[in-house]
Amino acid sequence: MKLHVMGICGTFMGGIAALAREAGHEVEGTDQNVYPPMSDQLNSIGIRLRVGYQPQFISDECQQVVIGNALSRGNPAIEAVLNSGRDYVSGPQWLRDNVLVGRQVLAVAGTHGKTTTSSLLAWILEHAGKAPGFLIGGVPGNFPVSARTGDGECFVVEADEYDTAFFDKRSKFVHYRPRVVVLNNLEYDHADIFPDLTSIKQQFHHLIRCVPGNGRLIVNAEDFELDDVLSYGSWTPIERFAIDDSLQVEWGGRLLDPSGSRFAVRYQGLAEIEVSWSLLGRHNVMNALAAIAAAHAAGVTVHAAADALAGFKPPKRRLERLLDRNGIRVYDDFAHHPTAIRTTLEGLRASHPKARLIAVLEPRSNSMRLGAHAAALPESLAPADLSFMLRRPELPWNAEACISKLGGKGKALPDVDTLVRELHGELRSGDVVVLMSNGSFDGASRRLVELLTKS
């Protein structure tokens, strides 16, 4: 079959394209914005990409169109598909019908940490010899692709609460019918489709309703919003995880180093197992506990899961170090929610206590652009010594007023050229800089690295 994937460079839809290609389908695709790492991955597996949503980009011989949730009515390509009577389907439904039926699905849900936790879980299962399939919303460090079918029974999927498609407004994750679900955390996000946190909780409840009684829920005990979701009804055994030792949990963690690079894990009060790995931050230790617990539900021993972590490589753009030159370290990170921004900065602060820490933020997500998180941004940037924010003209909120609350430790700049130029002029030996965006940031990371390499 020949498929056309619309929105193919999104992390989820790019994974769908990779799975379809692996299954032997001929795949082509379009997107409004094409940029690495997904564009590189798709090109490497022989998928033709075209920029823009033009009806003529859909081949005449294409038998099915897989439509991403970024597309809506009024788009010329969407209108052409509907008018032609072509067969079309959403990405989550295609995944369910063509890949997940008959598999043991392990779904990782939550506001933060889904990509890292999904990558951890897939790697633990791989290390244990279970040859899992997976679809991850990023390019995992331990695998050459973000999605594969896998030879084993298990399939790991990053389970997003965002809506499915213009014709299906349910959350993506209700399509997956998982046997094991990780509930990592829950905060307000996606202000473009959810009016409040209660409406998001309702979607998480719909997910829980799909989990069978002989499955497992792996729940962050430190997040009391999840307790509220569970109070709506749960029919599946629950195992909780936490670092806070005041909480009674099945899976406990203990930091052995403030940076999070060393920690201990214990299951049901048994002897602790120590872990040393390359990741930083308390939040990543929580991600590891969740992944270990989920892998255990799929039959992996605690020792085998903990042993896998030493060889774990984080996904692309999850605190990815791009440069260490002349005493300056540059990181690229996907953080785009105030909590994720703060935990990323706290992890860097703990691992580089004597460095000057510089945060560089593009408020790009729909919630960020709408201003849903504007009030929380100053506090989330507080761990940094200096912050730069991209102040695009289309932002409906006052970025200058936001950054002014940092007490002279921040700048709001109107374009990426100006931002990169001023940032480069500011840097000195001993600095640690992290650029944070859930998009391309107009190549800001690459451009800064090029300048620093030449200087």
SSE arrangement:
Elements: E1 2-6, H1 11-22, E2 26-31, H2 38-44, E3 48-51, E4 64-67, H3 76-84, E5 88-90, H4 91-100, E6 104-109, H5 114-127, E7 133-135, E8 147-148, E9 154-158, E10 163-165, E11 168-171, E12 180-183, H6 197-209, E13 216-220, H7 224-231, E14 238-242, E15 251-255, E16 262-267, E17 273-276, H8 282-297, H9 302-309, E18 320-325, E19 328-333, H10 338-351, E20 356-361, H11 366-370, H12 377-381, E21 386-390, H13 399-404, E22 410-413, H14 416-426, E23 431-436, H15 444-454
Parallel strand pairs: 1-2, 1-4, 2-3, 4-5, 6-9, 6-12, 7-9, 12-13, 13-14, 14-15, 19-23, 20-21, 20-23, 21-22
Antiparallel strand pairs: 7-8, 10-11, 15-16, 16-17, 18-19
Helix pairs in contact: 1-2, 1-4, 5-8, 5-9, 6-7, 8-9, 14-15
Describe the structure.
It comes from Pseudomarimonas arenosa. This is UDP-N-acetylmuramate--L-alanyl-gamma-D-glutamyl-meso-2,6-diaminoheptandioate ligase. It catalyses: UDP-N-acetyl-alpha-D-muramate + L-alanyl-gamma-D-glutamyl-meso-2,6-diaminopimelate + ATP = UDP-N-acetyl-alpha-D-muramoyl-L-alanyl-gamma-D-glutamyl-meso-2,6-diaminopimelate + ADP + phosphate + H(+). ATP binds at residues 110-116. The chain has 455 residues and is an alpha/beta fold. Helix content is 33%, strand content 24%. It contains 15 helices and 23 strands. The chain has helices spanning 11-22, 38-44, 76-84, 91-100, 114-127, 197-209, 224-231, 282-297, 302-309, 338-351, 366-370, 377-381, 399-404, 416-426, 444-454, and strands spanning 2-6, 26-31, 48-51, 64-67, 88-90, 104-109, 133-135, 147-148, 154-158, 163-165, 168-171, 180-183, 216-220, 238-242, 251-255, 262-267, 273-276, 320-325, 328-333, 356-361, 386-390, 410-413, 431-436. It has a ten-stranded mixed β-sheet. A six-stranded mixed β-sheet has the order 18-19-23-20-21-22, sandwiched between helices. Strands 3-2-1-4-5 form a five-stranded parallel β-sheet.
